[in-house]
Design goal:
- The protein has 324 residues and is of the alpha/beta class.
- Helices cover 42% and strands 14% of the residues.
- Strands 1, 2, 3, 4, 5, 6, 7 and 8 form an 8-stranded parallel beta sheet that branches.
- Helix 2 packs across helix 9.
- The chain is globular.
- It starts with 8 loop residues before the first helix and ends with a strand.
- Bound molecules: 5'-deoxyadenosine and iron/sulfur cluster.
- 5'-deoxyadenosine binds next to loops.
- InterPro entries: Aldolase_TIM, BATS_dom, Elp3/MiaA/NifB-like_rSAM, FeFe-hyd_HydE_rSAM, HydE/PylB-like, rSAM, rSAM_sf.
- One of its GO terms (biological process) is water-soluble vitamin biosynthetic process.
- This is [FeFe] hydrogenase H-cluster radical SAM maturase HydE.
């Protein structure tokens, strides 16, 4: 699949292990500037359901957590929020949920269609694994992009963390999405217990093999009510190194400064824009639902979506970049 990646597994491992990574950061920043320019894309993130049938070991929304107050936004609420995000200036809406079969492909497709009829928003779906024909249906309804992280490229670690799935099935979904013409987003967590530098090199090569148009990399954050509660959080430095190397492997990709990175430190989140990142997502989920979408513990801003976007635009400009 695809062309030979610009860096081999061994080269990636050696780079990840460097004492002084600053030359690689500089190179990644330069490649970002040449390949995708100074624009930072602001994306609206709507978490429309926190119901999930899966039991990923790291996630606060896992089905086994009975303490979570579950919610499902109605199609009307979803469309209204999409319109509000559009009015606030967003050009892309990311619709994210757990794997929630209540939203059948038909229903999701109708929602996507309605938003596409009423706005010129690009729509990114992030709703987990589905059969190819469902992805095809949603694409036909107007979905432009799909986010589905592979989480870890180590098949044994993947199996240990995901009682309901296999790495192979996950990669099959990513290939289907790509073939169906979606702009395809992958990604992985950095610092999962049991992960090594070898795994991270494979994670990066997996992004290149698809090849992903977008890739989100964030540090693993232990959630206190999951089986991984006692594991150490992932390193932000290592996460930034992965973003920089992803930029070298995929010069034109959209690489977000992930929310998880901002949880560890707000400074790191803005810093990653000089390490190759060019995208940031903002939650537009209504406040009454937002606090219930707790994948990992994180502080929440309670600002209005227009105001929130303005603040972020200012922050992006302060970095010498152009919000869009
Ligand atoms: N720490 C960091 N990221 C997490 N995700 C899920 N749980 C955690 C966690 N504990 C990420 C996964 C998933 C996305 C929705 O959130 O990468 O794809
Ligand atoms: Fe569900 Fe996604 Fe959480 Fe896994 S990571 S339990 S699929 S919401």
């Amino acid at each position: 699949m695809g062309n030979k990646p610009a860096l081999s597994a061994q080269e990636l491992e050696d780079l990840l292990n460097l004492e002084d990574f600053s030359p690689v950061y500089r190179r990644a920043n330069q490649v970002r500037q040449e390949a995708v320019g100074d624009t930072v894309h602001l994306r609206a993130l709507l978490e429309f359901s926190n119901v999930c049938r899966r039991n990923c070991a790291y996630c606060g929304l896992r089905a086994a957590r009975t303490q979570v107050e579950r919610y499902r936004m109605t199609p009307e609420e979803i469309v209204d929020t999409a319109l509000a995000a559009h009015r606030a200036g967003y050009r892309t809406l990311v619709m994210q949920s757990g794997e929630d079969p209540w939203y059948t492909p038909e229903l999701l497709g109708q929602i996507v269609r309605e938003i596409k009829e009423k706005t010129d928003l690009a729509i990114t779906l992030s709703c987990g694994e589905m059969p190819r024909e469902d992805y095809a249906h949603l694409r036909a309804c107007g979905a432009d992009r799909y986010l589905l992280k592979h989480e870890t490229a180590d098949p044994a670690l993947y199996a240990a963390l995901h009682p309901d799935g296999t790495l192979e099935a996950r990669l099959r979904c990513l290939r289907d999405l790509k073939e169906l013409g979606y702009e395809t987003g992958g990604g992985f967590m950095v610092g999962l217990p049991g992960q090594t530098v070898k795994t991270l090199a494979q994670d990066l090569l997996t992004l290149a093999a698809i090849p992903c148009d977008m890739a989100g990399m964030g540090p693993f954050l232990p959630h206190p009510d999951t089986p991984l509660r006692d594991a150490a959080p992932g390193s932000t430095e290592r996460t930034k190194r992965c973003v920089a190397l992803a930029r070298l492997l995929l010069p034109k990709a959209n690489l977000p400064a992930t929310t998880a990175l901002g949880v560890r430190s707000a400074g790191e989140k803005s810093d990653v824009f000089s390490c190759g990142a060019n995208v940031v997502m903002l939650k537009v989920t209504p406040t009454r639902y937002k606090r219930k979408y707790e994948i990992y513990p994180a502080p929440l801003a309670d600002t209005h979506i227009v105001e929130q976007r303005r603040t972020l635009e200012e922050q992006v400009r302060a970095l010498g970049r152009v919000p869009c």
